Amino acid sequence: MAQVKLAYIGGGSTRAPGTIASFIRQAANFAGSEIVLQDLNEEKLDLVCRLSRKMAAAQGADLKITATTDRKAALDGCDSVLSSYRPGGFEARYQDERIPLNHGAIGQETQGAGGFFMALRAIHVARALVEDMEAVCPNAILFNYTNPVNIVAQAVADHSPIKVVSLCEGPIVFPGELAELAGLDPAKVRAVMLGLNHACWSAEAEYDGQPMIPILAQKLEDGIQDDWTRCWVDLAVTMGSLPASYMKYYYFECEMLAELTEKPTTRAQDILADVPSYWQHYREQLDASNPTLTPKLSRGGIFELEVAVDVMDAVFNDRNEVWPTNVVNNGAIADFGDAQVVEVPCLVNRQGVRPISGYRVPEPVRGLLSALGEYQQLAADAAWGGTRRQAVQALTSNPLVRTLPLAQTLYEELARAHYQHLPERLW
């Protein structure tokens, strides 16, 4: 089994204990490996490190776990780097959500103006991260879990020689979620999802060996009581393809805007309310003889970033498996340019993560995905080295913004709110 050195950038976060639990569950596949936790908050980093060591020891996992606030030291000699960080924390996410809503626009972590400013902040850090990687571990692979994963990967792929793979559970979970909402058994769904991250659609979809769309059409005809389930199923049936759940922001924009506006709190506020209980749980488990994470008291559940661990295992142990990832297209999906980062099934082994060719995006959704692809490129370019003017151009191209006055207003307020986490050229 592979013995590697891994740096986990963001290793002092609320989701870090669950991520280490994912590594421990696969400890036999990484026996003798070292995981270096790196973060900026020394107190929380120390807590996560001590808890991680205790969990590993309790389960007999042959993993060496260390911690440092020095990013370059963490990266030195690494074979792989896992990045999952949030510049500005959930407080910044709250601004991403609330400020657009104040102006009648959707604010979300990866979509619209909120997603755009998350990209600006994330790529500002990613640029420095890959520069450090180029200096001390140039052959390491960057496994990125920082949102928006597609825009981060696009920026790195365009401007750095570092190999980058961005990851998300979406393509795996979206079909099953839709099936379960429609009253079907998610275990009987087999679907191939592709397109862009959080904007993927099924190229193939079967339920219990039969085409799934006619089955959903019958469910729709029989009557579905829940409004959101009916909308989601209707969208799938109308387009002839299973959508990512994030498509609700585009195809039901007015309804989603009304729902988000009426809700007294944003998603970030809901998470922030739970954060103290997460850290309390981790402190309590640190004192336990056999520390065990409780899903409701752990950010994201017990096993976090598990797809990243699976893909790393497939690479370093030469599994020759197929996983959905976000990589440079290289002709895999005919509807996107070769240099575009796309979400697509990939063959994963010691040679790397290579997209499987021969796919097309469903014809009825190509227009929207084309627009989102153009926005993705403009956003990546602006974030990496662009000017404020280029950033406003990119924001205006976002399908959830569209008009120049709105883009200018949102940019002004969000840039002011996040200036501490942005380069001066974007102020």
Characterization of the model:
Helix content is 49%, strand content 16%. It is an alpha/beta fold and 427 residues long. Strand 1, helix 1 (16-25) and strand 2 (33-38) form a beta-alpha-beta unit. The model has no long low-confidence stretch (mean pLDDT 97). The strands form three sheets. A six-stranded parallel β-sheet has the order 3-2-1-4-5-6, sandwiched between helices. It has a three-stranded antiparallel β-sheet with strand order 7-8-9.
Which key terms come to mind for this protein?
49% helix, 3-stranded antiparallel sheet, 427 residues, globular
Which regions contain 5 or more consecutive residues with pLDDT less than 50?
A: none
Shape verdict: globular
Count of DSSP H/I helices: 16
Mean pLDDT: 97
Termini gap: 48 Å
Largest sheet: 6 strands, parallel
Q: Record the strand order, biggest sheet.
A: 3-2-1-4-5-6
Total strand segments:
12
Give the fraction of residues assigned to helices. Answer: 40-55%
Q: Which secondary-structure class do the elements indicate?
A: alpha/beta
DSSP strand content: 15-25%
Task: Calculate Rg over CA atoms.
Answer: 21 Å
One letter per element, helices H and strands E, the order comes to EHEHEHEHHEHEHEEEHHHHHHEEEHHH
